[in-house]
């Protein structure tokens, strides 16, 4: 992975599981299918003569636009997933994400209020889990999706233990 | 600036103490004042009085006999009125009877609810802020509501409405004494007096009115009037000016909202923290204990610049963002001069962490360019912020990070290092092209959103690392939650003494404060 300009120096990022790309692609495919089907309704109605007044070009344009945007977003999913990274340091956890709008965040262990581990049906099928850290600030959006279950459990225990050791109130 | 006289005890001296200061024994519970439900529910009673009174009143003026039983209607009306009143008053009395509270050594407990009982207990040392609120009607009865906030940004943890004002003040003193970790003399537990306080500043009424007139509301009003005038001229019907009516109501409400909350604003310092008092009809006294301020912002709308006025807002966990009166409660100073701002900053940030705080914070308020330790955006940032690129920047003192931004709407955000929750670097596609990055400090819910805008990428990365290290170091030596508890080594007690020397009498003031601390 090429080093991005805002990444702190000397950090070896841990990446999320490559299987998470598949999970997201499945979700993306389902959403695209439903979206395209809904936006194709005027086209079907126009072609079958039920709603002839509807402009034909618009009827074609709607699903075509949707499909184009969806394909673009689908093409980004592998890169987006590979851009997610985390690194455990002595005092804090680093999390990075994003390709166009990049973000690198540092969450001190002592600031964590609680840690969530969530598993959806699709993630469970692939043996993955999501972990989310909460501090007293709602702006701390520290989510790590698509971790292997064992790694998620290890990280949760590790974060809780370190949070205990460095507890700092508010 | 003269030395403020220490206020004499505000109605809750030790002479009036009645045992409330001692921790309550396990079985002892108190009730709020019996009038409370009526003070809270007076709107319902007023509505009923209006609803039934109107008929009677109209009949009276039509010359009808007042108590005539015409076709039996009065009987039914009276019966309905009676039933509604009995239900309402019965509900009030029951809710009063079932609401009980207790202060123990470590907790405040409140039981409430008639059918659905609620038992709530909050740890005293988790207190983030205490408010004493007096709506107009409560003021008439000399009652007050006590609000106890913990860090959950939602509703108040404990609301005791209403207590006699003196009791509320005594309770506040007791809670703060317990929360501060003062060891009471077991023989005479009621001798923990309310922490002595010194008034630091008072905002004159004329300035409040002037600030309201120079606020954004006025700009909006002028624009709206101009737009309506143009519209009326184009349409050639003066009646088009009528569209202004809702705007006028809106701006009047805006002026009133500012004036009624900023009126008679006073700030004071006591060993228990910062005291803010304000209000025209509804008065509020807020106490923010030391170390509870998460972030402060000082801002200046463009029209205030001529007068040199500033507004200060604060993030305190427990005040929240929405909710009733959040805008007023998070206001640390509705309108003040530069000297007022420096004084308040000295209260919330007792140790500025720099030998020349006036220069550093002054540059943060109104300066631009790199002076007084500020690092600003590089010149290429002008493509993104053509006006404010010289002002956008940061300075780090030993205890806090200052984030400066805005050329027209000047703003300075101050975050103590030990209050930083997490830090994030952001970079969008345009900023990456220009080699710029934003740094955001995450703090608790509130009006202050500290961010350092458009730094050079390398400088931003450096600040990110440094700030993480500074925050970690500051956390290790942070003031304990029980702020007056004696710790071995450095006593944290002097932390509440203002350290920015604003006036010559500062030394005397510090001495005074240290004497005050001696009560532990």
Characterise this structure.
The complex is a heterodimer of chains A (170) and B (520). In chain A, 46% of the residues lie in helices and 22% in strands. Chain A is α+β, with helices and mostly antiparallel strands. Chain A has two domains: 19-79; 84-165, PH-domain like (Roll), CATH 2.30.29. In chain A, strands 1-2-3-4 form a four-stranded antiparallel beta sheet. In chain A, strand 6 (128-134) and strand 7 (142-148) form a beta hairpin. In chain A, helix 1 (19-39) runs antiparallel to helix 3 (56-83) and helix 2 runs antiparallel to helix 3. The two termini of chain A are 36 Å apart. By secondary structure, chain B is an alpha+beta fold. Chain B has three domains: 14-197, no CATH class; 205-260; 290-487, no CATH class. Chain B is built from 14 helices and 21 strands. In chain B, the strands form four sheets. In chain B, strands 7-6-5-11-10-9-8 form a seven-stranded antiparallel beta sheet. Chain B has a seven-stranded antiparallel beta sheet with strand order 14-13-12-18-17-16-15. The longest helix of chain B is centred in the N-terminal third of the chain and has 26 residues, at 73-98. The radius of gyration of chain B is 27 Å and the shape is globular. Chain B starts with 29 loop residues before the first strand and ends with a helix. The relative contact order of chain B is 0.10. Classes of the chains: A alpha+beta (170), B alpha+beta (520). The interface between A and B is medium-sized, with 30 and 38 residues. Chain A: InterPro entries: YdbS-like_PH. Chain A: Keywords: Membrane, Transmembrane, Transmembrane helix. Chain A: This is PH domain-containing protein.
Strand content of chain A: 15-25%
**For the largest beta sheet of chain A, what order do the strands appear in spatially?**
1-2-3-4
Which architecture name of the largest domain in chain A does CATH use? Roll
Order of neighbouring strands in the sheet with most strands of chain B: 7-6-5-11-10-9-8
Return the string of H and E elements of chain A: EHHHEEEEHEEH
Terminal residue distance of chain B: 30 Å
Strand content of chain B: 15-25%
SS elements, strand count of chain B = 21
What is the overall pLDDT average of chain B? Answer: 81
The CATH class designation of the largest domain in chain A is: Mainly Beta
Rg of chain A, alpha carbons: 21 Å
* First-residue to last-residue Cα separation of chain A: 36 Å
Total tally of structural domains of chain B: 3
| Total number of helices of chain B | 14
Largest interface: A-B, 30 and 38 residues
CATH topology of the largest domain in chain A: PH-domain like
Give the proportion of residues in helices of chain A: 40-55%
Task: Kindly provide the radius of gyration of chain B, computed on alpha-carbon positions and rounded to a whole number of angstroms.
Answer: 27 Å
Domain YdbS-like PH (chain A): 82-159
Transmembrane segments (chain A): 25-51, 57-76
Keywords (chain A): Membrane, Transmembrane, Transmembrane helix
Protein name (chain A): PH domain-containing protein
């Amino acid at each position: 992975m090429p080093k991005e300009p805002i990444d702190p120096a000397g950090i070896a990022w841990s990446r999320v599981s490559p299987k998470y790309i598949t999970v997201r692609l499945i979700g993306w495919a389902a959403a695209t299918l439903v979206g395209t089907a809904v936006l194709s309704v005027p086209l079907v109605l126009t072609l079958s003569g039920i709603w002839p007044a509807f402009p034909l070009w618009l009827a074609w344009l709607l699903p075509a636009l949707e499909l184009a945007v969806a394909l673009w977003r689908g093409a980004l999913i592998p890169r987006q997933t590979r851009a997610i990274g985390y690194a455990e340091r002595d005092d804090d956890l680093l999390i990075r994400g994003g390709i166009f709008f990049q973000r690198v965040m540092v969450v001190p262990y002592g600031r964590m209020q609680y840690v969530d581990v969530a598993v959806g049906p699709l993630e469970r099928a692939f043996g993955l889990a999501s972990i989310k850290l909460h501090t007293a600030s709602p702006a701390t959006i520290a989510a790590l999706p698509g971790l292997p279950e064992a790694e998620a459990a290890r990280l949760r225990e590790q974060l809780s233990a370190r949070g205990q050791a460095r507890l700092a109130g508010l | 600036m003269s030395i403020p006289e220490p206020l004499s005890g505000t109605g809750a001296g030790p002479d009036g103490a009645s045992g409330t200061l001692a921790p309550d024994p396990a079985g002892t519970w108190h009730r709020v004042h019996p009038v409370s439900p009526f003070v809270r529910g007076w709107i319902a009673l007023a509505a009923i009085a209006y609803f039934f009174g109107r008929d009677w009143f109209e009949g009276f003026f039509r010359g009808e006999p007042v108590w005539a039983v015409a076709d039996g209607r009065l009987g039914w009306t009276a019966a309905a009125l009676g039933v509604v009143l009995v239900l309402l008053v019965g509900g009030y009395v029951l809710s009063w009877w079932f609401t009980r509270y207790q202060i123990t050594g470590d907790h405040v407990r409140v039981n409430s609810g008639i059918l659905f009982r609620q038992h709530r207990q909050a740890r005293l040392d988790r207190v983030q802020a205490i408010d004493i609120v007096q709506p107009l009607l409560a003021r008439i009865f000399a009652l007050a509501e006590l609000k106890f906030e913990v860090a959950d940004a939602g509703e108040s943890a404990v609301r005791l409405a209403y207590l006699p004002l003196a009791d509320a003040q005594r309770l506040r003193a007791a809670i703060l004494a317990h929360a501060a970790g003062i060891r009471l003399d077991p023989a005479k537990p009621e001798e923990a007096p309310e922490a002595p306080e010194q008034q630091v500043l008072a905002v004159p009424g004329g300035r409040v009115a002037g600030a309201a007139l120079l606020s954004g509301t006025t700009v909006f009003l002028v624009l709206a009037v101009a737009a309506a005038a143009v519209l009326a001229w184009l349409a050639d019907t003066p009646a088009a000016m009528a569209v202004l009516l809702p705007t006028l109501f809106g701006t009047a409400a805006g002026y009133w909202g500012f004036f009624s909350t900023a009126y008679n604003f006073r700030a004071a310092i006591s060993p228990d923290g910062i005291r803010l008092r304000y209000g025209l009809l509804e008065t509020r006294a807020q106490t923010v204990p030391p170390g509870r301020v998460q972030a402060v912002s000082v801002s200046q709308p463009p029209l205030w610049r001529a007068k040199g006025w500033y507004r200060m807002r604060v993030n305190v966990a427990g005040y929240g963002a929405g909710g009733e009166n959040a805008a007023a409660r998070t206001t640390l100073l509705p309108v003040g001069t530069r000297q007022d701002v420096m004084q308040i900053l000295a209260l919330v940030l007792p140790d500025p962490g720099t030998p020349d705080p006036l220069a550093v914070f002054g540059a943060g308020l109104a300066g631009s360019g790199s002076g007084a330790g500020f690092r600003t955006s590089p010149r290429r940032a002008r493509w993104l912020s053509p006006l404010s690129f010289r002002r956008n920047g940061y300075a780090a003192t030993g205890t806090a990070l200052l984030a400066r931004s805005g050329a027209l709407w000047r703003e300075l955000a101050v975050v103590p290092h030990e209050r930083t929750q997490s830090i994030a670097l952001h970079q969008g596609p345009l900023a990456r092209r220009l080699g710029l990055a934003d740094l955001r400090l995450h703090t608790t819910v509130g009006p202050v959103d500290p961010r350092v805008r458009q730094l050079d990428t390398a400088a931003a990365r450096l600040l990110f690392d440094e700030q993480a290290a500074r925050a970690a170091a500051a956390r290790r030596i942070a003031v304990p939650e029980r702020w007056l508890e004696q710790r071995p080594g450095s006593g944290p007690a002097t932390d509440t003494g203002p350290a920015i020397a604003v006036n010559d009498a500062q030394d005397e003031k510090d001495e005074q404060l240290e004497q005050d601390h001696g009560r532990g």
